[in-house]
Predict the 3D structure of the following.
Amino acid sequence: MSFIADTVLAEPFAVLDLGAAPQGFRGRIRGLRAFASGGLPAEELERRLLELGFVEGAEVELLHQGLFGRDPIAIRVDSATIALRRREAAAVLVEPI
Amino acid sequence: MNEMSTGLRDLRIALVGNPNCGKTALFNTLTGSRQRVANYPGVTVERKEGSFLSPGGRRVRLLDLPGTYSLRARSPDEVVTRDVVLGQQAGVAPPDLLVCVADATNLRLGLRLILELKQAGRPLLVALNMFDIARHRGIEVDVERLSALLGLPVVTTVAVRRGGTEALLAAIDAQAPAAEAEAAWSAPDAAGLRALQREADRILAAVVRVPDRRDAVTRRLDAVLLHPVAGLVILLAVLFLMFQAVFAWAQPAMDLIDGGFQALGAAVGALLPEEGAAGLLRSFLQDGLIAGVGSVLVFLPQILVLFLFILLLEDFGYMARAAFLMDRIMGGAGLHGRAFIPLLSSFACAIPGIMSTRVIDSRRDRLATILVAPLMTCSARIPVYTLIIGAFVPDRPVGEGAWSWVGLQGLVMFGLYAAGILSALGMSFVFKRLLWRGQPTEPFMLELPDYKLPRLRNLGLGLWQRAKAFLRRAGTIILSMMVVIWFLSSVPRPPEGATQPAIEYSFAYSIGQAVEPLLRPIGFNWQIGVALIPGMAAREVAVASLGTVYAVQDAEEDTAQLGQALAGRWSLATALAFFAWYVFAPQCVATLSVIRRETGGQRWMWFSFGYMLALAYLAALATYQGARALGLG
């Protein structure tokens, strides 16, 4: 227990992937860790995420999620709202704020 | 530069921008009804072009390019945008000016596109659209500073308001035709995109002050409309309301059109004698032309009500939400979440539906959508369903009290639509398992725009274009098919002293008799056989053909009584089998040719024709035999 508490204290900005975030989560993008998904190579997924505004430093908020498997999710990225699936959202690394 | 040509030539302007930036509203405001929709040569991307006279007296030709987030084209739509912007599109002269439309309430992605366009080196003007909404929401944009930082002229526009485009028009008047220069541009990689977005964010931070809140209306509406459970219930309710409206709202207008054509037919009948050559002309005008075209035109109100709903939902910003809500359900059937919009458009007509599959990047996901789109109940099937429902389903409420507003006829209609939807989902599930086993569906990524009040002008223009397309169809394909059908069912004329009804001497009768053995197991008589063949040209012609065949058969009846004629002649089992046939009915020739164009070959066209024909026959067979077994024959 104390080890976990220490880790959290030592690293207050724990990084998680957006695909695992709960509804209402607010955070800031720390980086993209793209992988091949849905027939797209990693590089292409990264570019598509960038084109929709998922760039390091941008603020995100998980606004809505679907009924089945809490998927897809609607993410507020700065001034836009983007819908995507959790599988691809996992490529976006975020820290809570 | 040569002054002469500069003064005389039309100015060519292209509108570029993100999806949902209000580009099309701006296009409509600038050009009004002076616009036409065609295709780019060789591809089926819609080319929307219009023209207007600037305040300075210059003729401007305006091109509305498909929305895009980046010049890095992925879909056929985006390829056209890129090629026109770079001046490489065949058949399109390079524009003198690119007007990059950006949503002032959501500048971030638009700004990145602007920076990318700037790299292409073409003359560029930035229009900050929806500036009134931005101001209303407390978003402050330092336009002069933005212009200085971008190194580009920037104007503000309010596309939907009179006078909202003055600054843009003034800037257009100041524009000189561009020199013909090849644009230098290469697709940015991830690092390039990142750098552009960072620069855009830097500029934004310097010129835009945003109050720390989202659009309050959108937030509140989404809390309900995107609620995991309530959202789905509301979506279902919206679709249900849409189909009830198609039936209920259109009725008065339909009665009016129907009455008009009957009066016209009667007037023509009174003018011409029944005997001899004039009698043949009378029969042609009355039974062929007026009865045939009238029985199709009468469905214009229903088609317009349907399109009104689709346009309203699109303008309001609900369509993207519907795609969000349906993504998992569609995904379960092996369809892409984006397929929802093309499939919903297919309720109006499979052709725009199939064409709008271009928003799906992956070829396989697109093909799956194209193959099942014709299963969605298109508006051409409305006449068929309406006729049979009118003849066989009593016009009364489903229940008492709270249910008294739900009509039984509307419920049956809803059931037929549901059958279409379920078969589309089922077939895509089968295709996914059989044709593309183990291949993943492309990621679903879609921007959910803020809600906006639909504008009357845009709705009006949209409806007018749909009405025009329908009337053109009625005036060409449908009209000519009606002439052919009338000819086949009237010629040869019966010999002197004939004892059988005139129609039994006609070509139509011979054709109907020839196909009847094939159709007997599914409960269709020879008249239906005659109607099905021209139904391939356009589904609604089947109704008109039945009208003509029965009108010629019993000369005194007109099409208004077609429903009663059918009710007297068809068994309930036949009517049900006819429904089943039309749920799957092999698509019309126009749809098939669009499939061939969009899939780039005949293979998928024949495949889709074949599988739907087989399904229609089997469904009708099962329905007819099942109904007979239950004693409805």
